[in-house]
Amino acid sequence: MQVPFLDLKSQYLVIKPEIDKALQTVFDKSAFVLGEAVLEFEKEFAKAHGVQHCIALNSGTAGNHAALWSLGIKPGDEVIIPVNTFIATAWGAILCGAKPVFVDCEADSYNLNADLIESKITSKTKAVVAVHLYGQPANMDAIKAVAAKHNLILVEDAAQAHISEYKGKRIGGFGEAASFSFYPGKNLGSYGEGGAVVTNNAELAKKIRMIRDHGSQNKYQHEIFGHNYRMEGIQGAVLGVKLNHLEDWTEKRRNVAKKYIRLLSNNLKIKLPKEMPYAKHVYHLFVIQILDIENKPNSELRDSLANYLKEKGINTGLHYPIPLHLQECFRYLGYKEGDFPVAEKLASNCLSLPIYPELNDEQIEYVCTNINNFFD
Length: 376
Ligand SMILES: *Cc1c(COP(=O)(O)O)cnc(C)c1O
Hints:
By secondary structure, the protein is α/β, with parallel strands linked by helices. It has 2 domains: 8-243, Type I PLP-dependent aspartate aminotransferase-like (Major domain) (Aspartate Aminotransferase, domain 2, 3-Layer(aba) Sandwich), CATH 3.40.640; 246-375, Aspartate Aminotransferase, domain 1 (Alpha-Beta Complex). The protein has helices spanning 8-29, 36-48, 60-70, 88-95, 140-149, 202-212, 233-243, 246-264, 299-311, 341-349, 361-375; strands spanning 53-57, 78-82, 99-103, 125-131, 153-157, 165-166, 169-170, 177-181, 195-199, 216-218, 221-222, 270-271, 279-280, 286-290, 350-353. The strands form 4 sheets. The chain has a 7-stranded mixed beta sheet with strand order 1-9-8-5-4-2-3, sandwiched between helices. A 3-stranded antiparallel beta sheet has the order 7-6-13, with no helix packed on it. Strands 12-14-15 form a 3-stranded antiparallel beta sheet. β4, α5 and β5 form a beta-alpha-beta unit. α2 (36-48) runs parallel beside α7 (233-243). The radius of gyration is 21 Å and the shape is globular. The protein binds pyridoxal-5'-phosphate.
């Protein structure tokens, strides 16, 4: 049996008639950049997150940047970000000329540990970026409290967490702004690159719209510095169609996760993802940790499990094998191994199992049987 890590084609085949029709409309109107389909998607995506404004962009990285840029983050500023995340979270600060300051994650949620933020705050600290990693909301009450106490701007990186919930409320409105990615493999994915920022702040929304379009509201009048971060028309059309399926697909992801947890819960060699009491996890990724007898970091055992599964036709991933503080590009920040023990252990032990709405019971059972066989 083959179990790919991701299967975008089988989803396309299910929605092909809707997609083809929506794309044809874009071609007929030649609305290739922004346009009606993008506007319509912005409205629906904002509504889906219970926020006032959505600005559609051409990547999640653009969203990370535009959110912090519009909020005035500039050279000399420091921005707190979790050390366990995809690197694009850090690009938001870097592209503003600011310095990313890393904080370790929690052992159970793998999200930013709010208790560790305070010791990293200096007179230069301006913002905190809370990442809802793997599809599980970060502990927003705790993070919000620290941000409020120190007068820091709070931004969400929701690239992996479309329509996830914190204490029954969808993410996206917990900070000044939230960025999303629509990279094809994300829970809501375009057929190319895509991203967005959502916010309840009308002034900020206006500014991000200008940043997206060369710092301009009226053609050839440039009031502020900007970029070309505009979403393509065909991506707006695809996302508009796919957004209608997102709740159904999210429930299916949650069901896959539930089955994995049931079939793997007796395996004492692995640690399963934990849905926190405050969270509705949307399982962008299903990340397990491989534990050895002494409960130590063990990338060799993890790698041999990944190879074993690969031989059986099962593809897995690593999210993420190198924490940000150990990346070559951040060497100048002066961090060293041992600075963030929770993230470092996770980097050695993590293994992401295939998860997507189309994954069937037979495949799920096959994955679990093979994992259990490996340890027997
Ligand atoms: C995917 C991702 C991004 C960046 O999105 P792109 O659309 O690929 O630019 C940012 N942050 C996180 C946490 C991501 O997973």
